[in-house]
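Re: [help] complex structure
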Amino acid sequence: MTPISRTPNRDKIDSEVRQVPPDSRMGRRIAKKIRERVPSAEVDVQVEDGIAYLSGRTGTWNEYLGAGYAAGGMKGIRGVVADITVDGMPKKELRRPDRPKEVIKEDEDVIIVGGGVIGCFIARELSRYDLKVTLVEKELDVATGASKANNGCVHVGIDPGKGTLKHRLCLRGNAMFDKVAQELDVPFRRVGTLLVITDRTLPENVASKIPDSLRKLVLKYVLPHMVLLYGKRKNVPGLRKIPKEEVRQIEPNLTDDYHSAVLMPTMGIISPYELVIALAENAVENGVDLMLDTEVTGILVNEKNEVEGIQTAKGIMRGKYVINAAGVYADELAETAGAREFTIHPRKGALIIFDKKLAGYTSHVVSELLLGQDKHTKGGTAMLTTDGNPEWGPSAIEVPDRDDTSVTSDEIHDILKKYAHLFPHIEAGSMIRYFAGVRAATFTEDFFIGASRKASGLINVAGIQSPGLASSPAIAEYVLDILRAEGLGMEEKPGFNPIRESPPKFSELSVAEMEKLIREDTRYGNIMCRCEKVTEREILDAIRAPLPALTVDAVKRRTRSGMGRCQGGFCLPRLIKVLARELDVPLEEVQKKKGGKVISSRTKEGGQ
Amino acid sequence: MNAKVAVIGGGPAGLGAAVAAYEAGINPEDIHIIERDMELGGILQQCIHNGFGQLIFGEMMTGPEYASHYIDEVLKAGIRFHLNTMVLDISPDRVITAVNQEECLMRINADSIILAMGCRERTRYQIHLPGERPAGIYPAGTVQRLINIEGALPGRRAVILGSGDIGMIMARRLVLEGAEVEGVYEIMGSPSGLPRNVQQCLRDFEIPLHLSHTVTGIHGNRRLEGVTISRVNPESLKPMPGTERYVECDTLVLSVGLIPENELSEGAGIKLDGWTGGPIVDEERETSVDGIFGCGNAVHVYDLVDDVTKSSELAGRSAARYVKGETICREHVLSITAGENVRYTVPQHIRKQSDEPVEVFFRVYLEAANVKLQALVAAEVISEESRRVVKPPIMEKIILQGDLLPVDGEIIIQVVEK
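Output below.
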């Protein structure tokens, strides 16, 4: 292995930062903007090196957000740190678990914090090189946060503004998906987006001012044409206006009640958690040490503000570079290194899923063009999962709590109502599940990716929200470039194997193939999940994989056991017995997810 | 493999149907019961409380006792059965594809099929229960399996949502196992399970029953920490703001309704009834697909296992007649319409085979006192019975005399005040 020098070579990366006015003038401009937008807020502004530091108080969470966005929207501001208290909302006390001083890793090259799609993608890409890489994740599985709770859209890149990281990385990431999905054996389909222009496209106040005949012309001809131009300007390939007759053929259950439609063929769908699991498995097979159930409590820096490693609940790990891919907690992690350059504010998104028996009901990502909506909350589509279940959402709701993944009655109702405009005849009763994830939004609304200017050796990969999944392959590539620029030498490892094969899925096989498998291993003949037809052998495959499934939810994400219409009512008692047997723990220790035991104890007569 | 009668499911319905087909003259070697669990008996095996068999045997039996009576009959007759066997598919031309570990992949060409898969439980998602998704939220039947079969206690302090029979029975069971049951909450103004269970499972154990209440929040990211309970408006059933109450609990048991298992029925192209969720059947329990019959909770959810057995015996006899080519006159259809205060009926139509009396099962929408159950043909009452009270949780039945039934047209079943 070549010795690694950590000589920063930042010119290449920093050249992208635009010319900005002097800090003090910028500070005054931001303060003025905040006063205009949120008059009741008492907020001081300091600007340093393109980062706006806000401090003070506001009356409500919405005012807090208003202040943050006012600063984040300013040209030349690359990050916003919001140290603002909100009346009646005490700052959440950080849990400080044990900090054992035992050193459990001596000299890692790269330590990645966070096992979401970003952390796992970076780990997998680094595993191409002759490096010591460790990925630490606080939960018992990868993909337990936003990476599992999104709709799996591989976006085309039309939404982000030109010149943003989001735009550049989404375009590139989207194009990289075919190869990575094939290498990792993850179902990925370029289904295309159908963008429909309807009576709701123009905001009420605009529509009411335009005469009827002109409005129809706008909706039918002008707007689709503008979408095409917009797509061209954003370098999104293949956009075309698509006539109604053709739409009827390719999406027969879609309402007829729209004026025009544009097809964006590069939109893809993928199972987001299957992708992350595949990346993690491939990384592990190529030598990355993936440590689950390892909460990081801080980044260790020396007096020269150089990263020396991390403190975890299991001990100290020393390493030269730390990648902060901690999702909604990325700002708190960076803060432990004294490197405050951004604040994350959580934005919840709820999704609903319909019964797989409706597979084929829709075959595209269908969106309604809605102009004049709040740019922070727009979005959401009527689409399908790679298994064929129709899936609607997500919503976008700002919530103060980073762990708030609840779904309210209003959210369910709103989603059902919103997309029933597009698919009015779907049976609402065939909805089988809803869930929510929390987006790690920053006030600048762009990804915050780069070497920290406050702690050398810390690479922040933060603010990753939509189109984060689509961008993930390009983000990983970009982060490797940053590591090189920061002085990490990378030499290709001869044994790197980019191929990962997923075990067979019984329910997707032909009858002949099923028969063959059962003859090879009779455990394929024991169906444990009735709805999704998951066999005992598949569950064992998941538990014995390179990255073992340790919980009920981990098994579910790998096999679909419990994902059907009965939602685990049938398979749960059976599955926990297999988990207990395979993990060699008592039944009462089996968990749905970390900290969520399935049962509390044996019964009076049970357990003998 | 060939079968004269293939029975999908080895619970009370499947057992009753198989035995009846045997008694109607089908060779036991030609009757196949396919059961997905490790033993025959179905859900009865986890119903260790008593209360079964009063109508048929005139005594109170436990679930396993009731099941063992029919299992013995099956064994005695030499009827074939396949355990640990999951049916993957039933084709409209009656080819069954199933898997197990011994016989691998089985294809059974059946002259007739009896659907006896029972029912499944509604989930929290089907009733739009809001909140987080931690461990500790289970349907009542899953809790019953955990406690009675696996010897596993799901939690220490439970809230029960819904006053279905299994929910109330599990409330008592949890208390007997040393867990605390904070209360049973029912969104409707009256209990949805049988009155005897309200008395024996709740009142006798001093478990509070809160009517017109529901769960409006689920708290805890990992294991359930508590639920929010709200009072609902009795008319709109919408939660009333300001009535929220936080209840600490580690377990939420759902007893919010049962739906016939209908995946296989749908796969076979059988027409389903939007109200019952099960196949539309005639008085012989034949579905819309030739030679496929349905019975028990796979057709509509019964209150009592005794009625499940009776319906399955009817289906078993019908399948035997079908196989022997004794079925007659299937052209004419007499449709049965659910009239005033009748939610649905089973059967949904009659394809008159004989002048035998026909029993029509139904449920009312609303509780009512001093009423008449009536069957009308062309505005003329052909059958009438009196009831002191009718309630949605209690299944009703009216008997139609065969010789009074026309071969086609419409018959209306209604419940009217005296």
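The radius of gyration of chain B is 22 Å.
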